[in-house]
Amino acid sequence: QKEVEQDPGPLSVPEGAIVSLNCTYSNSAFQYFMWYRQYSRKGPELLMYTYSSGNKEDGRFTAQVDKSSKYISLFIRDSQPSDSATYLCVSYNFNKFYFGSGTKLNVKP
Amino acid sequence: NAGVMQNPRHLVRRRGQEARLRCSPMKGHSHVYWYRQLPEEGLKFMVYLQKENIIDESGMPKERFSAEFPKEGPSILRIQQVVRGDSAAYFCASSPTKETQYFGPGTRLLVL
Fold first, then answer.
1. Collapsed DSSP state (helix, strand, coil) of residue A82
2. Is the peptide bond before B8 cis (omega within 30 degrees of 0)?
3. Which of A94, A99, B23, B60 is deepest in the core (most CB within 10 A)?
4. Per-residue pLDDT reduced to its tens digit, B50-66
């Protein structure tokens, strides 16, 4: 079992929709969680960083961690075509970063 | 504060040549990670370095690949005697602490 599992998609939504991206992780010791956005042929860009459980909001983005179910979510409100990219969930533990395989999102105008 | 810099952005090599990829971390960052990404695939960890030390090289192929992060200057990922299978995007990330990281734009290596 991979340490971080993520549905690869692709996920296609209309402009303005609320997008929910999800990951699960296997190691209950994981405390640090990140979401990255990667546009085609570009480097990943850090979107959100959370520690332990709870919610964190930044503009249209909300990151949520539920440690009891080992579930990580990223919500995008009022999605825009410019949000079309691959989204990576990542966890950190003891000098190692564990990457999900990425979910490809397409927001249609 | 400039972001993570990588050069060259594109590199073409013939089989058997050496490829040298450079990464300048963000100012104040002392942790550097290298990743490889094949088209339509996820990021694969290669190596984690701090200044003058290799901390974790568990993702590095045993032969032909090496990495360094000297006291002065950029981190270097070196691939000797490149083969076609080495063609990929190589990303460097730097970190101020340890729990998060910022990526560079990548170097796209093409081996002919």
1. helix
2. yes
3. B23
4. 999 999 999 999 999 99
Cβ <8 Å between B104 and A96: no
A contacts of B57 (beta carbons < 8 Å): none
The single-letter code of the amino acid at A43 is G
Cβ contact, residue pair A42, B105, below 8 Å:
yes
* From A42, A45, A49, residue closest to B100, measured CB to CB: A49
Pairing of strands A11-14, A103-108: parallel
Predicted confidence band at B107 (pLDDT cuts at 50, 70, 90)? very high
Of A46, A92, A95, the CB nearest to B56: A95
Is residue B97 predicted with pLDDT exceeding 90?
no
Q: Chain A within 8 Å of B34 (Cβ-Cβ)? A: no
Q: Is the pLDDT of residue B16 over 90?
A: yes
Strand partners, B80: none
